[in-house]
Write a structure and sequence with these properties.
This protein is mainly beta. Helices cover 14% and strands 40% of the residues. The chain folds into three domains: 3-50 and 63-80 and 390-426, no CATH class; 85-162 and 313-387, no CATH class; 169-306. InterPro entries: Flag_bb_rod_N, Flagellar_FlgE/F/G, Flg_bb/hook_C_dom, FlgE/F/G-like, LlgE_F_G-like_D1.
Length: 429
């Protein structure tokens, strides 16, 4: 038999594999997170018909005469290039911008995928379309996430209770409005409002009454009495009074509690806050006045922040670019629920395709480098969008023609070899 016939057979097999790869790419043109595959060919063994010879003093050298014995598949490579964005508006659709894979778990096996179309199972766990559980880190009771901890199933339980938190800190801002013409103590009175919560989550509204005592118009120093009391006038807990001094360019200084006059003091930088016993917690709520100044005009002093809240339940969640899942509760609180884990590899092409757009660690992929989105070489995440297949149909149709012509040409070689053998048989006649 002729060597050409067997070489052509290897060509048929190789181009059939290329055709299979192209067909699979085209079939997955609309598969979320699919990555294009490409075939790479290489020559098989060659037969040396004549060895080469180096030049000597009398003759020139000769090159070896070699006949190739066909082609074989060298590799099927995967193009992990970024796919286009498909906006869906669905809260559970996540897209990776850049390098990395979502980490999932199927049974006891860790898998990796770029397809971010997730949903929930009956236990509130985040899963892929084929039921694999999405991995990450859950937050503790305070909303803190340890990304150095062990991976676990991500879980979002709508309606989960958030217990109340007593107010321990209130931040005040803007201006205590000075009346430079008020020479008599008590003629300039300003009232600010603050809302706090006790340990049961019950809202308490406070009046912070500022009474101007005196003003030094030459230095700009002003002296006040601050009375903190319940807005409804109740005396449980009892109102408390402080003396306060404001100076240009310095933090306010307080005396008390129980002050009856605004005692001047030069102890700056040590009394930035005052504690009101009995409100919010057993130790009281600390009011921070470092952002407050005394001015003749401007915006009146007000409470701009406080850290307490009433009880609530989880109503929705959102995803940030670093993969943090933030829960939104019915009491308007926002707290981290968990964070999606991502993985990257030294050689993603070495991953084993497990089907269902998932990959497993391969012998040549390297170990999975786990981290949070946006750290190291890991990409960022977008919610409400999916990564489309990166299949380029124009390239695939071109590859289809190349595979078809290559297969056709090799079949012609077999036909020609058959005709040569027929002529050889006919020599006997």
């Amino acid at each position: 038999m002729l060597r050409s016939m067997f070489s052509a057979i290897s060509g048929l097999r190789a181009h059939q594999t290329k055709m299979d790869t192209v067909a699979n790419n085209i079939a997955n043109v609309n598969t979320v997170g699919f990555k294009t595959q490409n075939t790479v060919f290489e020559t098989t063994l060659t037969q040396v018909l004549r060895s080469g010879k180096g030049p000597d003093a009398t003759e020139g050298g000769t090159n070896p005469a070699q006949v190739g014995l066909g082609v074989k598949l060298a590799a099927i490579t995967t193009d992990f290039g970024q796919g286009k964005t498909q906006n869906t508006g669905r809260a559970l659709d996540f897209m990776i911008q850049g390098d990395g894979f979502f980490v999932t778990k199927s049974g006891g096996q860790q898998l990796f995928t770029r397809a971010g179309s997730f949903t929930f199972d009956g236990a509130g766990k985040l899963i892929t379309a084929d039921g694999n559980r999405v991995q990450g880190w859950m937050s503790d009771a305070d909303g803190t996430i340890d990304t150095g901890g062990t991976l676990e199933d991500l879980q979002v339980q709508y309606g989960a209770a958030l217990p109340p938190k007593a107010t321990t800190a209130v931040t005040m801002s803007r201006n205590v409005l000075i009346d430079a013409a008020a020479t008599t103590a008590g003629t300039n009175v300003k009232v600010a409002k603050a809302t706090v919560y006790n340990q049961a989550g019950v809202e308490q509204r406070l009046n912070l009454t500022w009474t101007q005592q005196s003003v030094d118009n030459s230095t700009g120093d002003s002296y006040w009495l601050l009375n903190v009391a319940n807005e409804d006038g109740s005396t449980t807990p009892a109102p408390v009074t402080y003396g306060a001094k404001f100076s240009a360019g310095k933090d306010p200084v307080f005396t008390g509690p129980g002050a009856t006059t605004a005692t001047p003091t030069d102890t700056y930088g040590t009394a930035h806050t005052i504690a009101v016993p009995g409100w919010g917690a057993p130790t009281g709520a600390t009011f921070d006045f470092t952002q407050v100044t005394a001015q003749a005009a401007g915006t009146a002093i007000a409470a701009v922040d406080q850290n307490g809240y009433t009880a609530g339940s989880l109503s929705s969640f959102s995803l940030s670019e670093d993969g943090t899942m933030t829960g939104v509760y019915t009491n308007n609180e926002r707290r981290a629920i968990g964070k999606l884990a991502m993985a990257t590899f030294d050689n993603p092409s070495g991953l084993i395709n497990m089907g269902n757009t998932s990959y497993a660690v391969g012998d040549n992929s390297g170990v999975a480098l786990i981290g949070a989105a946006g750290t190291g070489s890991l990409g960022t995440l977008s919610s409400g969008a999916l990564e489309m297949s990166n299949v380029d149909l124009s390239e695939e149709f071109t590859g289809l023609i190349i595979a078809q012509r290559g297969f056709q040409a090799n079949s012609r070689v077999i036909s020609a070899s058959d005709e040569l053998l027929q002529d050889l048989v006919n020599l006997k006649r």
